[in-house]
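Holo model, pyridoxal-5'-phosphate. Inputs:
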Amino acid sequence: MTPSSWLDDFPLRMVELDRAHLRRRRAVVTPDGGARLKVDGRSMLAFCSNDYLGLSTHPDLVRAACAGAQAFGVGSGGSPLVSGHSAANEALESELAAFVGLPRALYFYAGFAANVGIVPALVGAGDAIFSDALNHACLIDGARLSRARIHRFAHADLPALERELAHSSARRKLVMTDAVFSMDGDCADIAGLLALCERHDALLLLDDAHGFGVRGPQGRGSLAEAGLFGAAASRRVLYMATLSKAAGAAGAFVAGDSALVEWLLQKTRSYIFATAAPAMLASALSASLRRIAQDEWRRTHLCRLVGRLRSGLAAGLQGSGWQLGASQTAIQPLLIGRNDAALAAMAGLRARGIWVPAIRPPTVPEGTARLRIALSAAHTEADVDQLIEALTALARESVDALAANA
Ligand SMILES: *Cc1c(COP(=O)(O)O)cnc(C)c1O
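Output:
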């Protein structure tokens, strides 16, 4: 008998994933008006999109993308350092820097690529990274690629961070954190983190993927919310945000001190060795920045929906063991615990025409599988009421099932 090849293992490994309820499946979706999606052909009320302001289908953005495609074509043709840096991308960078009140911005084709690239450009072997335990995967991967020593501190535990900083003898220290945590919706204490960075000569990298567009005056993001804007900005903060969430399109940017951003332009491999984002996206994003700044009603409405969901669920979840996380943002995690229970809850909602994704490890820690409810300005109050009603019914069923098994 010939020895088996490791290539034969994949089907067996897939069975293991199935058994642990960790197999992931993609749904095929099409926009279906408002916050509705056609999911595998069926119209569903969706609470799964990071399009927090409902801008991804806005006519202004669509028109701008079309005009950009007319003017520039649909491809950029090369790396920004060769021939891909279009006039539209150049203009967008100035607009982004002004929008977040920082000296200079660098525009990337994706947020994941931005973080994976900028961390190794900032620190390397012999340096130290201090990383919140719940940071996004791309910050973690960027840290690993850098070969700097990684100190992981317990989520939001500033005293623990301070101890680690004090013990480190590295000359270059980088503290990195999500500004709004992607699976929990809670917010980092930016003023507290910055004070520690000042004291220990560290640089603070803030990933504001979920704050840009929704937090701060005119949606200018979590730094602006913390008052670190314009003349009050600190050169110790490197700000990163994605343009794929509230901004409704795709891409990302980093912004901060001019010398620092110039360094990133020189050294970030995911910037240098990747094709620039197509100019049509930059055109759409310029239109998006105008809508973000002007449409205060989108943030007001979203904020009202968050309050409505939280107060509406307060009574309905009692005794179920299900619990809403302590979030005031559009990300409202409903913690369930077991992977199979989270999947069952997702299926229960799906049967009622509602689409909320179950999030399981390794995206979240073991034993904290959850429904990640994402609200958007595209939702109506009636949409949120429908979700509250369905979740209350499912929570009741799970209480009844627990009682029957006891
Ligand atoms: C989505 C996300 C990213 C990645 O951004 P993309 O533009 O989707 O590649 C990075 N950081 C956080 C916190 C995110 O949620």
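The chain has two domains: 26-53+296-405, 59-294. The radius of gyration is 22 Å.
Archived with the compound record.
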